[in-house]
Amino acid sequence: MNLYITHSSCRLHDNGIYHPEMAERIGRIEDQLISSQLFEWFLHDEARAATDEEIALVHDPRLISVLEEALPEEGVRAVDEDVYLSPHSLEAARHAVGAVLDGIDALHEGRAKRVFCNVRPPGHHAEHRRPMGFCLFNNIAIGAAYALHKHGYERIAIVDFDVHHGNGTEEYVRSEPRVWLGSSFEHPLYPHSDPLSDLENMVKMPLAKFSGSDAFQQAWLEQAFPALRVFQPQLILVSAGFDGHALDPLANLRLHENDYAWMAQQLVKLSEESAQGRVLAVLEGGYDLGALSVSVREFIKALFELSA
Ligand SMILES: [Zn+2]
User: Fold this and answer.
1) Which domains are seen in the chain, by residue range?
2) Mind spelling out the 3-state secondary structure of 256-274?
């Protein structure tokens, strides 16, 4: 009933040397799950590739063709200040989206109740027309759009606890009231979005530099979860970024792996109230390989309700 989805191409997208969003992230997470003897306790799927039509549920089709044309035959090419393409980047990005769509199908068909997608490139900064912040396509937003259009869901919640605000996901929920977004993030920090929400279907929780577990948990308990309960989502999707960890090199929050276990426990409870337990989480950030792999392990253990 617990499903883990990845694809080998996600290890082939290359941002060049010294880039924090590195291919090893996927392998280190998987190695950690194997060495902790958790790996055999869930189902495994190889992701399919998302189609152009599916990606265009959220993105301008011209974005796909622009990226295809920019794809280098070898080496690495910059397309934005921190977005790079290598020969297998689009294959990886299509499978990262495809993992989320496969997971949503599995939840809908009852093949799984909880899903974790160990994929890259991440997605929540990607906007309608432009890739941004290490992200090519917005995996989670496309997942929400797919669940609405393909399976007829009417209320979907996106929970985003990455240390950076998901500006691309925010752009999507601006035109989609059937999707609710709760987002905690360090402020001020990239992508420097407005820290206040002007939308009924979005709760933003800016956290000051050096905030730790108490501020993080309090924000979710007092601001986001009450609103999420009122919204009564039929499905909970999670932008699972682990760069709020105290050891992360890109940000300054002081979260620990236990905070991610806590978050997963809360999501399990909330999902049982209105979503028949259905939760799908997809990897976003997290750039200290050790902290990332342990944080994901603790998150998955709690999400999948494993006691090992
Ligand atoms: Zn991030």
Assistant:
1) 2-303 (3.40.800.20)
2) CHHHHHHHHHHHHHHHHHH
